[in-house]
Write a sequence for this structure.
């Protein structure tokens, strides 16, 4: 499966962005999907994930602000990010998991700054 992430950019604190990750090359609906991020000088961390059945989980730092969703008909997963903070600044990566194997998309950069 190939993953193409988009939607990053520069936003002021308190603002919103929606990231999208379009998947091609396999049966999207059977994959668990998610988003990781890596801030400068920090390790990559899981932000949010959604299973093939629609169950979701979030990092504590983004709970109540971020929402993950998937649209199987469009083979796309979204990350709606509200109330953004400077500490959300990072490169965000889309992932797809199936059968013990993880696929990574290229990153999309999010910068939260005034």
């Amino acid at each position: 499966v190939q993953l193409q992430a988009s939607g990053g950019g520069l936003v002021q604190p308190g603002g919103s962005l929606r990231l999208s990750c379009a998947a091609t090359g396999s049966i999207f609906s059977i994959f668990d999907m998610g988003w990781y991020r890596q801030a400068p000088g920090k390790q990559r961390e899981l932000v949010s994930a959604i299973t093939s059945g629609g169950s979701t989980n979030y990092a504590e730092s983004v709970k109540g602000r971020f929402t993950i969703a998937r649209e199987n008909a469009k083979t796309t997963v979204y990350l709606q990010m509200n109330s953004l903070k400077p500490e959300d600044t990072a490169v965000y990566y889309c992932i797809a998991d199936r059968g013990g194997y993880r696929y990574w998309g290229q990153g999309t950069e999010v910068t939260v700054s005034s």
About this structure: The chain has no helices and eleven strands. Residues 18 and 80 are 4 Å apart (CA to CA).
